[in-house]
């Protein structure tokens, strides 16, 4: 099983990710609110601004502080330096 880093010591199994989206649109904001109400939200942003949202096959919604483009590169297998992580 392959994992990718979502930043700040957090990872997700690649084969469980169904979608990677930006958190800016109203439908995604509703999806995040619904997931929070159902107890299916996982916030790995460590208190930082949410810059990407991952949706898993188990209907969990993962919030990350890394930009959507950076996570997309990692999903495609292109590793990027973690110089912006603490």
What features would you describe in this structure?
- The chain contains 2 helices and 6 strands, in the order E-E-E-H-E-E-E-H.
- The chain is 24% helix and 30% strand.
- The strands form 2 sheets. It has a 4-stranded mixed β-sheet. A two-stranded antiparallel sheet has the order 1-2.
- The N and C termini lie far apart (26 Å).
- With 86 residues, the protein is α+β, with helices and mostly antiparallel strands.
- A hairpin with a 4-residue loop joins strand 5 (52-56) and strand 6 (61-64).
CA(first)-CA(last) distance: 26 Å
> What sort of overall outline do the alpha carbons produce when their principal axes are compared?
globular
Low-confidence stretches: none
Number of strands: 6
Overall residue-averaged pLDDT value: 92
How much strand? 25-35%
Order of helices and strands: EEEHEEEH
Strand order of the largest sheet: 3-5-6-4
Largest sheet: 4 strands, mixed
Helical amount: 10-25%
Spatial extent as radius of gyration: 12 Å
- Total DSSP helices: 2
Structural class given helices, strands, pairing?
Answer: alpha+beta
């Amino acid at each position: 099983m392959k994992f990718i880093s979502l930043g700040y010591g957090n990872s997700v199994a690649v084969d469980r990710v169904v979608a990677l989206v930006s958190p800016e649109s109203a439908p995604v904001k509703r999806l995040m609110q619904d997931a929070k109400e159902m107890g299916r939200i996982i916030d790995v942003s460590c208190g930082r601004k949410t810059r990407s949202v991952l949706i898993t096959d188990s209907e969990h919604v993962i919030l990350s502080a890394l930009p959507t483009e950076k996570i997309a590169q990692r999903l495609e297998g292109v590793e990027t330096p973690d110089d912006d992580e603490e």
